[in-house]
Amino acid sequence: MAVEFRVLGPVEAHVDGRWVELGPARQRWVLAVLLVEANRLLPADRLLDHVWGDRVPSRGRDVLYGYLSRLRRVLRATGEADIVRRTGGYELVVDEGVVDVHRFRRLLADARATDDARAVAMLEQALGLWRGEVCAGLDTSWVDALRAELDRQRFTAELDRAEFRVRTGRHAEALADLSALSAAHPLDERVAAQFMLALCRSGRQADALAHYQRMRVRLADDLGADPGPSLRELHQRILTSDPALTHAVPDAGTSRSPVVPRQLPAAPALFTGRRAELARLDHTLATAPDDPAAPGPAAAGTAVMISAIGGAGGIGKTWLALTWAHRNLHRFPDGQLFADLRGFSPTGEPTGPAVAVRGFLDALGVDPRRVPPDLDARVALYRSLVAGRRMLVVLDNAATSEQVVPLLPGSPTCTVLVTGRHRLASLIDRHGTRHLALDVLDRDEGRALLAARIGADRVAGEPDAVDELVELCGGYPLALSITARNAATRAAIALREVAAELRELGLEVLDHDTDHTASLPAVLSWSLRRLTDEQRTVFALLGIAPGPDTTPAAAIALTGLSSARTRKALSALEEASLLDRRPGGRYAMHDLVRDYAGTTARATLPEDVREAALVRVMGFHLHTAHTADHLLDPHHSFLRPDPPASDVHPLPLPDAAAATAWLAAEHATLLATQHAAAALGRHHVVWHLAWTLHTFHLRRGHLRDALVVWRTALDAADHLPDPAARSCAHRNLGQAYSLLGLHEEAARHLDRALDLAVRHHDTAEQAHTHHKLALARERRGDDRGALEHARHALALHRTLGQPVMEAAALNLVGWFAARLGDYDTARDHCEAALALAGRHHDAEGKADTLDSLGLIAHRTGDHRRAVDRYRQALGLYRTLGHTYEIANTLDNAGHPHAALGERDQARAVWREALELYREQGRDTDVERVRRQLDDLDPTPEPDGQPSAADSAGERARQRAATGTPGSARRPGPASRSEDAS
């Protein structure tokens, strides 16, 4: 089935030549956006912006969802495309070869990588795809920008086609094109230059000179400027009848033509991906000063254009440089020079500039007897020979700026491309080098690389195994290439077996005993040679540090060095492309680089050095987390961990907002720290990390993480002397199970916690456990049993003199009384709880109780007061960052709004609750709120208007008025880390 999608004109689809009905105009424009952004995730908000701009209707999301649903059915019928709903938005999955805009761009790129004759055919095919205005009829800022971009590309394609026609002798066709372009772009100097050259080569020198004069006058009148140097030079060459302009062969008596070096190695045969990087290099060249190939008037300037591709060993720098160079050979007709500077090589020293420039002089045809002996004289001769020539100089594998600077031409007609693992800061600072940092391949690029090397059929036959291989390699090009080689040379082995081997053995599979250039560990090891001993030690320690990334403060604790020395080492590793600087001052390694660093640590650092480093960084994370937890909930007695070592300096967090932000940023690292502590047998660190993370986990809804850390803490509690540690672990583990709906496991752990507390006469533990048992009974539908446990908790807290916990228990009793219909008792207990929490400045306790009072008001028919109570509770929860309870209260608040007929307000709070429930993975709550929204807000008809809205809204209002909130509230300290002593 031949499928074609078109956006270069009216938005259309064709299957086997037959037009496909795509629906109303706005629906077609939704498809147009998805086609332009094919195979990329688009959030719904961005789709709305691109299609409606600032005119999104009040029910725009619903209309959009309706359009997407209908388009999905149309596209699936073609068998070539599908709209997939993913976390965060929608993605149109389609072969870009069937979309005209992507085919247009691909033809342009391919035309630049082939000979002139084929290029003309490709450009004609590309330009033939246009049928009018892009996305005709759509009027938003997004489409304006898209049209401007595509018009520029179309204009460049027309110019390139004319240039290639001139170069292949098709002057008459070129003149027809250039005459029209000249009329449309009278001030464009590249158009003028090509038109003059075509006229000259057609034997019309006088017309070419006359066109120059018209151009000069027009520039002076309209811009007050003279023609640029390139156009002036062409004019002079026409005036003097330069034979080169008409391809004349020089007489025997004339001086010998300059040698045109062609030193580039072959282009990589199986290069894939890197479209964005190639485009950036293209843009750099297109905006180069005085570039005769650049569209528009030449910019003023005399600097050599230098681009530096940086990145770790094996990331694909050389392949990118060579691919780009070969695709742009036509832009450097006077030759290309190439030197491997061997900055990171398995053998020998880096190539010195004297040796490299001598190679350039040989390539430029200099008689060996004329080569000067000293470096400065060689450089001067080299720069003289390339002056004024359009040449490319590729300097591969540079280690230092000192290697590169003597090899830089002095003429702005030359372009330089440098690759290296180091950033070469002085080149950027002193020579204006454009730095391009090369990262790993994305998933699709990784799949394309494997397909190119082991065959598309084999990749298509095991898509899951291929995805795992790309993930295990982390998109690292050399790792993917080695993996592809292993798979290609063992064709009988299934890819899932290759993936299993890589998963089990890791870097060992990517090593090679004899060919070091085909070994990832060997390639990475070359980067370490230029580091100091201290920097190598820091690199190794970062490989064993817990967590996916680190901060300078954590690195200081890990290394035991001063702040200045640690930061200097981090900067050196970043310069060497062994460490990436991320937003927020964080540093991270690629997983494979990190694995290599860990291997280096185990091979070069004594065990006691490694353990001491881990103990320091675990202490840093534990004590900073302890500070953060105290700021989140200052109203309970803390179990303090042992003091940190004297050389460990936890962060002094200023307030609860900073504490929440730090815990969120370090969450993955803190989980990894607990795992590392368990491996080292640091049982007190394991237990205290679970304790300090408990409030954060419950406030943010990280229930599965809470389950994992408390399971680990329960094992550690067996090794701790305080029996309360084990009871507390059972209690909090039971709470996590209960919140996740695993009621049998919850009951088992909570009963065990109560049994231990009674056995050890621990009244506080008994009180806290009764509180958790009450909440667990509620989730099983046993409100009377829950009320009994709540009364036990209240009585015990009163004997202990704990006013904050007494307020929580009062609220708990009031909540269950309300659920059982005893509203007077419920109101009395909750009002007492609110007053007590207020006296002790317990914001969370006040929020919990206000939510309970909202339920009481709603069930007793005072819906306006219920709305007000819920609004107050939400304000406090938002201040606390308590997203778990924000979701619950939003859910509950929708019901009194609906009962009052305030459908817009109900819709708003339920939609916000829905998003939070999704983020927290609370699937049951998600489905319930969806049903509430469906009852409140029915699915729109194809014309965007609701159907049976009044009856559906009335059903929602009546259901809300019955006094049954959507989600059960979890009153009291569900997120409180109570005193376990």
Your description of this structure?
The protein has about 1000 residues and is mainly alpha-helical. Among the domains are: about 1-170, Orthogonal Bundle (Arc Repressor Mutant, subunit A); about 275-435, Rossmann fold (3-Layer(aba) Sandwich), CATH 3.40.50; about 445-520; about 530-615, Orthogonal Bundle (Arc Repressor Mutant, subunit A). About 60% of the residues lie in helices and about 5% in strands. The protein has 43 helices and 13 strands. A 5-stranded parallel sheet has the order 7-8-9-6-10, sandwiched between helices. A hairpin with a 2-residue loop joins β2 (about 10-15) and β3. The longest helix has 27 residues, at about 140-165. The model is unreliable at about 245-255, about 290-300 and about 940-980 (pLDDT under 50).
Quick overview of this protein structure:
This is DNA-binding SARP family transcriptional activator. The protein has 981 residues and is mainly α.
Give the terminus-to-terminus CA distance.
72 Å
Helicity level, as a percent range? 55-70%
**Uncertain runs:** 247-257, 289-301, 939-981
- CATH top level label of the domain at 1-168: Mainly Alpha
Summarize the biggest pleated sheet: 5 strands, parallel
- Identify the CATH architecture of the domain at 1-168: Orthogonal Bundle
The CATH topology of the domain at 1-168 is given as Arc Repressor Mutant, subunit A
Q: Look at the helices and sheets and give the structural class.
A: mainly alpha
Rg (C-alpha, Å):
35 Å
Instruction: Tally the helices.
Output: 43
Look at the structure and give the mean pLDDT. Answer: 85
Strand percentage, roughly?
A: 5-15%
Number of strands: 13
Indicate the overall shape. Answer: globular
Report the oligomer: single chain
CATH superfamily of the domain at 1-168, called what? Winged helix-like DNA-binding domain superfamily/Winged helix DNA-binding domain
Q: Enumerate the strands of the largest sheet in spatial order, edge to edge or round the barrel.
A: 7-8-9-6-10
Protein name: DNA-binding SARP family transcriptional activator
Biased composition (Basic and acidic residues): 922-934
Family: Belongs to the AfsR/DnrI/RedD regulatory family.
Region (Disordered): 922-981
